[in-house]
Amino acid sequence: TLFNGAFFAGLDDVEHKPHSFYIDRYPVGREATVAWPTVDLKFKNDTEYGVLIQTIHQPSSIGGTGAVTVRMWGTKIWNIESITGARYNYTSPDTRYLSGEDCVPNSGYGGFSIDVTRVFRKVGESEIDHTEELNTVYTPSDTVICQ
């Protein structure tokens, strides 16, 4: 995703909002949602060099899934390491009983919190320059039983 491209390029995270619910196709604690005009993804190139953003789209086949790849091209300043902590503060889903033709059953799943540390090392150096912490709280998804 674009967020991960900027994350691993070491660019400044100006604004991002994780999804409210955990979606397993994204790296846990390291993802962003966009819902214009209220929720946006913003990052800043705080280096003295330019950055080229390349996106590659692979369309889905019938019954399959597509893919989007994002690459950041520029002068590498940082080696970035991502450290994902253990999940904690587990929360259980509620059960809702609904009726009607528009009812969509859902098996539900619990919520949790997770911390991700972004570790910055200058290229060619092993010493940690600085770190940034991301904390994400995923809400549970309710179980829905259609009657």
UniProtKB/TrEMBL annotation:
It comes from uncultured Nocardioidaceae bacterium. Coiled coil: none annotated. Pfam families: VanW. The lineage of its organism: Bacteria, Bacillati, Actinomycetota, Actinomycetes, Propionibacteriales. It comes from the Bacteria. This is Vancomycin B-type resistance protein VanW.
